[in-house]
Design a protein that fits this description.
This protein has 9 helices and 8 strands. It is of the alpha/beta class. Helices cover 44% and strands 17% of the residues. It starts with a helix and ends with a helix. The site of pyridoxal-5'-phosphate (PLP) has 13 residues, from β8 and α9. The site of pyridoxal-5'-phosphate has 13 residues, from β8 and α9.
C-alpha cells in the first residue's frame, strides 16, 4: 500500500476507535513518525495532507526537515527521542513540540535556551511508566514533582505527558497510568500508542498517537 493509502486507513481506524470510546475523532492527532526515512519517502505523506511528524534524533531531523518545512510551511515537528542538553539549542530551532522532557537539568537548559532564542516549543514530560532502567523518562512517582518544577520554576509551556510502554507488556495499564498523571495535573495532551496499539491508546484517552511503520512501512 502507498503511504497515502496507509494514512487514509489509519485515519479510518482512529475515527472508529474514537467513536467506540465516545470521543471526537478530531481530538486525536496522528503524529507520523518519519525517523530513518529520507525526504523523498516523507514527501508523499505531506502531499496526502499529513502535517504532524515525529523524529527521534535531532541531527537526523536537521538533515531533512528544514527543506521540507520550507516547502510545507504548516508542518508541526515533534521530537520524540532523548534530548541531550548540548543539543537543546539545535532542537529548539527546528522542533515545534519537545515530547521528551524527563529531568530537571534538561528543563533548566530548555528554559535558558528558550529565553535566549525567543522561541518556545510546547513541551511534554516523558514518563517511564514501566520503570525500565534502559529507557528515558521520569519515574511515575516523580512525574508530578517534575511537572511542577517545569511549570513553576522554569515556566516551560508544558502541555502534557508522553510514554512508551515496555515491549511485550499489556500496554493498557501503562496507558491508564499516563492518562491519570495528565488528568491529575490538569494537562490536556497525552501522547501514547504506536503502530501496534494506537486503538487501545485512544480508548485510554490518547490525544496524540505516534505511528511510524504503519504509515511508512517497516524501517530498514
Ligand atoms: C519509533 C517510535 C514510534 C513509532 O513506532 P512504530 O511501531 O513504528 O509505530 C513511536 N514513538 C517513539 C518514541 C518511537 O521512537
Amino acid at each position: 500500500m502507498s503511504v497515502a493509502a496507509n494514512i487514509a486507513a489509519i485515519r479510518e481506524r482512529i475515527a472508529g476507535a474514537a467513536r467506540a470510546a465516545g470521543r471526537d475523532p478530531l481530538g486525536v492527532t496522528l503524529v507520523a513518525v518519519s525517523k530513518t526515512w529520507l525526504a523523498e519517502a516523507i514527501r508523499p505523506a505531506l502531499v496526502a495532507g499529513q502535517r504532524v511528524f515525529g523524529e527521534n534524533r535531532v541531527q537526523e531531523a536537521e538533515g531533512k526537515w528544514p527543506a521540507l518545512k520550507a516547502e510545507f510551511a504548516d508542518v508541526e515537528l515533534h521530537l520524540i527521542g532523548p534530548l541531550q542538553t548540548n543539543k537543546v539549542r539545535d532542537a529548539l530551532a527546528l522542533f515545534d513540540v519537545i515530547e521528551t522532557v524527563d529531568r530537571p537539568k534538561l528543563a533548566r537548559v530548555l528554559a535558558q535556551e528558550m529565553d535566549r532564542a525567543g522561541r518556545r516549543p510546547r513541551c511534554l514530560v516523558q514518563v517511564n511508566t514501566g520503570r525500565e532502567p534502559q529507557k528515558a523518562g521520569v519515574d511515575p512517582d516523580q512525574a508530578d514533582a517534575l511537572i511542577a518544577v517545569c511549570r513553576g520554576e522554569y515556566r516551560l509551556p508544558v502541555e502534557g505527558v508522553m510514554g512508551i510502554p515496555p515491549a511485550g507488556d499489556d500496554p493498557m495499564p501503562h496507558f491508564r497510568l499516563l492518562a491519570g498523571i495528565a488528568a491529575r495535573n490538569g494537562l490536556a495532551v497525552v501522547s501514547m500508542g504506536m503502530s501496534g496499539d494506537y486503538e487501545l491508546a485512544i480508548a485510554a484517552g490518547a490525544t496524540h498517537i505516534r505511528v511510524g511503520s504503519a504509515v511508512f512501512g517497516a524501517r530498514g
